[in-house]
Amino acid sequence: MTSPDWHAPAASGRLDATVTLPGSKSLTNRYLVLAALATDTSRLRRPLRSRDTELMAQALRQLGAGVDDATSLGGSPDWIITPATLRGGRTVDCGLAGTVMRFLPPVAALASGPVTFDGDEHARVRPMAAIIDALRDLGVGVEDEGRGTLPFVVQGEGSVRGGRVVLDASASSQFISALLLVGSRFEEGITVVHDGKPVPSLPHIEMTVETLRDAGAAVDDSEANTWRVEPGELLPLDVTVEPDLSNAAPFLAAALVAGGSVSVPDWPQHTTQAGDMIRNVLDQMGADVTLDSRRLTVTGEGRPGGIDVDLHDAAELTPVVAALAACADGPSIIRGVAHIRGHETDRISALSRELGGLGVGVTELEDGLRIDPAPLRPSTFHTYADHRMVMAGALLALRAPGTVIEDPATVGKTLPDFVPLWESAVETGG
C-alpha cells in the first residue's frame, strides 16, 4: 500500500540548517551479520532503524540469533546481538533490501535445514544469479525457479567447506561482500575471484573488508579482483555506527539549489562509505565545502554548475546528483552507472522519465544520463518504491513550487524521518 502524496516544500529563501542523521545502513547491516556470527555478545550503538535494517535484524532472529533493544547512556536505542546455533526451517522476508537478499543466503548455508528467501514484488526481478551460482559452486544446495532471482531455498547443512569461487559481480558489489562476511566460518575460509566487467561500488567492498578486520578476521585484498578470508573465529563488536553519508546527500545539495548553508554533524574524517564522494561532487558544482572535527558544512549561492562525473563507485548518489544537475546553469553528464538499472527500480529510466516530466532535457546513455537543464514546471514526481527517488524529488521541488511526490513513505527503507527532517531544514529558509 502506498502512502499519501507529499506536497514537498519549495525554497523560500537561503537555508541555514543543521541536520543530524542516523547511522549508515550499509555499516549497520554488515555489523549485524558479523555480530550474529561472532563468538560472544556484541553491541551496536546508534544503528540505523529503518525498513532495511529491521528486515535484517528480523531475518537474523529467524535464523536463531538474538537481536534485542537496549538504551545507551546517551538515550539512543542500541542493538544487543547474541550469537546462537543457526537454524533452518524458516522463511526470510527480504523486502526490497539488497543487503538482506544477498548477504544472508551464505549465512543460511550454515543453518541446520532449509531457509526460504522471498521479498517484495520488485525484489523478484533484482539480479541474484551470481550469489546462487557461487553457493552451488561451493557445494551448497539452492532450489530456485531457474530465473536467478527470488524466491529460492538454501539447503543449509550446518557447515560449508569453502575454498575458491569465481563469479561475475559486475551487477553488484554485494555479491562479493556476501561471501566475504561469512567466509571465516567456512571450514577452509574463502577466496573470491571476480571475473567480468569492473565491479561497481568498490568502496562497499572496502567497507566489508574493514568491518571484517574490526571483528578480527584475517583478510587479504592485496591482489586485484581477489579477496581471501582465512577460517577462524569472529570477535564480538562494540561499535558506534557512522552517520549515513548517502542519506546526507540531498540535504547538503539543497544548499546549492536554494542557497545558504547546511551542516551535518559527526561527519567522519576517515570512512569507507561511498557517500563521502558527495563532498567532491558538490565542490565541483560550485559549493564551498568545509570539513572540521565536528561537522561537514556546505554553502552555496543557488547556482550549481554543470558537471561531467563518473559515479561508478558511488552510484547510490545518482538520483540526487541528477536532480542537482537539473537545477544547474549548464548541461551535465553522469557516467559509469549502468548497473543501477538493477537497483530498487531501473533508476536510469525512472530519472529520465521523471526529470522529463518536469521539463528537463534528458538523454539516456549506455551507462548514465545527459541532463540539459530547463525551467522546472511542477508535476507529480513518481518514486517507483525507491527511497532515492523520493530524495531526488524533494530536491527538485525546491525549484518547482507545487511539485507533488508520490508515496514518500517508501523512503523509510533507509531514512524513515526524511520528510520531517527535510521540512525542518527547508523551513530555515527566508
Q: What's a quick, concise take on this entry?
A:
The chain is an alpha/beta fold. It is built from twelve helices and 23 strands.
Question: Please, could you describe this protein's structure?
Answer:
It is a single chain. With about 425 residues, the protein is an alpha/beta fold. It contains 12 helices and 23 strands. The strands form 6 sheets. A 4-stranded mixed beta sheet has the order 2-15-17-16, covered by helices on one side. It has a 4-stranded mixed beta sheet with strand order 4-5-3-14. A 4-stranded mixed beta sheet has the order 6-7-9-8. It is globular and about 60 Å long. The protein starts with 5 loop residues before the first strand and ends with a helix. The mean pLDDT is about 95.
Overall shape: it is globular
Classify the secondary structure makeup into a structural class.
alpha/beta
Query: How do the strands line up in the largest sheet?
Result: 2-15-17-16
Task: Report the major sheet.
Answer: 4 strands, mixed
The helix content is: 25-40%
Describe how the helices and strands are arranged.
Blueprint: E1 6-7, E2 15-18, H1 25-36, E3 42-45, H2 51-62, E4 66-71, E5 77-82, E6 90-93, H3 98-108, E7 112-118, H4 129-137, E8 141-144, E9 152-157, E10 163-167, H5 174-183, E11 190-194, H6 202-214, E12 219-220, E13 226-229, E14 238-240, H7 245-258, E15 260-265, H8 278-284, E16 288-291, E17 295-300, E18 308-310, H9 318-326, E19 332-335, H10 347-357, E20 361-365, E21 368-372, E22 380-381, H11 387-397, E23 404-405, H12 418-426
Parallel strand pairs: 2-15, 3-14, 6-7, 10-11, 18-19, 22-23
Antiparallel strand pairs: 1-23, 3-5, 4-5, 7-9, 8-9, 11-13, 12-13, 15-17, 16-17, 19-21, 20-21
